[in-house]
Amino acid sequence: MSMSAACLPTEESAVHVESDHDASVALVTVAGPWDRALWQRSSTRLQKCLAEHPEAIIVDLSGLDDPGARSAPTWINARLTAAAMEPPVQLALCVPPDLPLADRLQRLGARNHLPVYAKVRQARVSIAGRLPLTERLSLTLRPDPEAPSLARNLVSDACLAWNLPELLHPSRTVMSELVTNAVEHARTEMTVVVSLRGPGLHMIVSDLCPEPPRLIKPSRVLRGRPLDDRGLGLRVVDGTATAWGTLPTSTGKVVWATLQPRRPGSRVTGLR
């Protein structure tokens, strides 16, 4: 398969995901020759992004080598899945207009309400104007011992203001562990955001350390140190949140968690 002149040169297929600082918009970049392997990677990453339920996803296909426009059904299906979520997730594509894929997507997207833009910047501007006015509280914190307490207070304010008493205590617990993890491991200034997402609460902690958090096995109890419980913070998050995960940003990462009112038979899902 020959590389289209309009495509960015790439040595191998790649799918890269990057979030903005409040995890509301995710940018998925797909590059390389379109084949079964790249389709599988792209589908997996898109499913993971949708599970994280951002407000919008931008898929940059500027570096995709797809002269036969065979990837079009993948993006149409992603759009339909995003639109069916509650609340819906906006999805937009970026494709240079001189590529065959752009022409086919314009025709297919017209009836599926799939917006296609020439550049990522144009997609960001357009999406920013269509994002819902989400209830949101934010706070910038230093990596100090007081940071978890301040973050818990922010969550309390949100739950009381948005009439979510059922989520008050579990949300405070999750936020406290996320911020404590950032204080102990990232050791950078962080931004904490709490937003109303459907009937539940979406919380993010954004820091300047690119290394993602890891779930580790609880340490073995040592003689003389029976209370040395390390590495339990993210396990508390994993056991309390409806879903949680992490995404890279241009300056570090965001770690997010969502809590929804519990329904009979509901299960907790960890996304990393």
Structural write-up:
Helix 1 (36-51) runs parallel beside helix 2, helix 2 runs parallel beside helix 3 and helix 6 (168-186) packs antiparallel against helix 7. This protein has helices at residues 36-51, 72-83, 100-112, 120-130, 147-161, 168-186, 233-240; strands at 14-19, 25-33, 56-60, 64-65, 90-94, 116-117, 136-141, 190-197, 200-207, 243-248, 253-259. It is an alpha/beta fold. Helix content is 35%, strand content 24%.
Concise synopsis of the structure shown:
The chain is α/β, with parallel strands linked by helices and 272 residues long. The chain has helices at residues 36-51, 72-83, 100-112, 120-130, 147-161, 168-186, 233-240; strands at residues 14-19, 25-33, 56-60, 64-65, 90-94, 116-117, 136-141, 190-197, 200-207, 243-248, 253-259.
What is the secondary structure topology, with strand pairs?
Layout: E1 14-19, E2 25-33, H1 36-51, E3 56-60, E4 64-65, H2 72-83, E5 90-94, H3 100-112, E6 116-117, H4 120-130, E7 136-141, H5 147-161, H6 168-186, E8 190-197, E9 200-207, H7 233-240, E10 243-248, E11 253-259
Parallel strand pairs: 2-3, 2-4, 3-5, 5-6
Antiparallel strand pairs: 1-2, 7-8, 8-9, 9-11, 10-11
Helix pairs in contact: 1-2, 2-3, 5-6, 6-7
